[in-house]
Design brief:
With about 80 residues, this protein is mostly helical. The chain has one domain (about 5-75). Helices cover about 70% and strands about 0% of the residues. It has helices spanning about 5-40, 45-50, 60-75.
Amino acid sequence: MNLQLDPHDLRRLQELAKREGKVVESLAAEILQEALAAREKTRTWVDEVSGSFENDPEFEEVVRLGKELRRAERTDR
């Protein structure tokens, strides 16, 4: 198949692709903004604090003590 396009048709196709590309890009940005807004509405306090202490030098000790406390409080021993 040999598709022949004159330069004018080629320019028109390029302009159409550019215009359509901008429409798709705009829609993608809008969808992303809506998704982020919906996510923000469903965030809880756990989401806010989760991971906030991971670089704390005492983090591992706090985790160890928490596990020890939960183990000691278990009633199924």
